[in-house]
Write a structure and sequence with these properties.
Helix content: 25-40%
Strand content: 5-15%
CATH class: Alpha Beta
Number of helices: 13
Radius of gyration: 19 Å
CATH architecture: Alpha-Beta Barrel
Structural class: alpha/beta
Number of strands: 8
Distance between the termini: 20 Å
Largest sheet: 8 strands, mixed
Strand order of the largest sheet: 6-5-4-3-2-1-7-8
Length: 333
């Protein structure tokens, strides 16, 4: 990083937000491991078919003990492809038995992997919310980012989900899409790109969905490697810094979310997890040591990659976090 880049903590201080602290716990996000049937260009987890890190049954039992002892409303399951973990289905069922909302971050093509033939039925029976990655509504950008043939399989998967009620009005089966930019720029306005996706997916493929979330590509992991290889890293960081939004910083997801790594270690977010920046400043560091009060009011660990969550309308696992009118004027793309 260039020495004249303003440190993220300096931006927080100017906004009156340093140190950044948690203000509760609404989401328990659990990384099921880095094994995945895809190896996407933008993946900050650097997941792929050759990875073997996976959460075990003992660590998941610690997560269930925490859920039984609290009223945390939402459990957010991610990976890699979380469905590839052998403990995935029993854990989803246990969370639903506790009355928790379960979000599964699904890459869609997992529906066609061997052994996953009944996955759609499983999702339907347990009423999970599917948060599905779909970088664009056209084949070229999707296959460039995620691999040849991924778009066609994704469309087929969305049709299967629509057929059983996911994304359909009145069914209660939520199907949210995730849009990531294909390059070194910020996501467009979330409402505008959602309208584009609704129009184009319906017209081209007869597909409907519940919501669309825009998520900025974080300058870490595989995407950072791509930026550095193409000479775009400095320009991307400058764009993020110029677009820093104090309201987005105030609303960042880490203030109400806790991330559990595949090995049970605790992090303020999935991005910190991938960088090995664990919970600190006296907060518990492993799920087996969980303390509700210490976690719910902990000091958040930040670094310069956090500009990715606070640029423009902000970015979170649930999409944009600040109204469009609060966004700084965008830098030239």
């Amino acid at each position: 990083m260039k020495p004249d880049f303003k440190p993220f903590r300096a931006a927080l201080a100017e906004s009156g937000l340093d140190p950044l602290t948690a203000n509760g716990l609404e989401v328990l996000q659990i990384n099921f491991g880095r094994l995945c049937n895809q190896a996407c260009l933008h993946c900050h987890v650097e997941a792929g078919p050759g990875r073997r890190e996976m959460i075990d049954a003992e660590t998941l039992e610690h997560c269930l003990r925490l859920l039984r002892a609290t009223t945390i409303p939402t459990v957010d399951l991610t990976g890699g492809a979380p469905e590839m973990n052998p403990n995935f289905r029993s854990f989803v069922a246990a969370c639903r038995d506790l009355g928790r909302t379960v979000l599964v971050r699904c890459n869609l093509t997992i529906l066609f992997e061997p052994g996953q033939e009944d996955l759609v039925g499983f999702y339907t029976r347990h009423g999970v919310e599917i948060v599905a990655s779909l970088p664009y509504y056209q084949e070229g950008p999707v296959d460039t980012q995620r691999g040849r043939g991924v778009f066609e399989k994704s469309i087929e998967a969305l049709r299967l989900l629509n057929d059983v009620g996911f994304g359909q009005v009145g069914t209660g089966l939520r199907l949210s899409l995730v849009y990531n930019p294909a390059g070194a720029f910020l996501p467009p306005d979330q409402g505008a790109i959602e309208a584009d996706f609704r129009r184009e997916l319906a017209a081209r493929h007869g597909i409907v969905f519940t919501d669309l979330y825009t998520i900025a590509n974080m300058p870490i992991g595989r995407f950072r490697t791509h930026l550095e290889r193409t000479g775009a890293y400095d320009g991307y960081m400058e764009r993020l810094i110029r677009s820093y939004n104090p309201l987005a910083a105030e609303r960042v997801m880490c203030r109400s979310l806790l991330s559990v790594g595949w090995d049970g270690k605790l992090y303020d977010c999935d991005f910190n997890q991938m960088l090995g920046i664990g919970c600190n400043h006296g907060a518990p560091t492993h799920i087996s040591q969980f303390d509700v009060e210490a976690i719910a009011g902990r000091r958040i660990c930040v670094d310069d990659h956090c500009y990715g969550c606070t640029a423009g309308a902000g970015s979170s696992c649930g999409g944009a976090i600040a109204p469009d009118e609060t966004r700084p004027k965008p830098a030239a793309q």
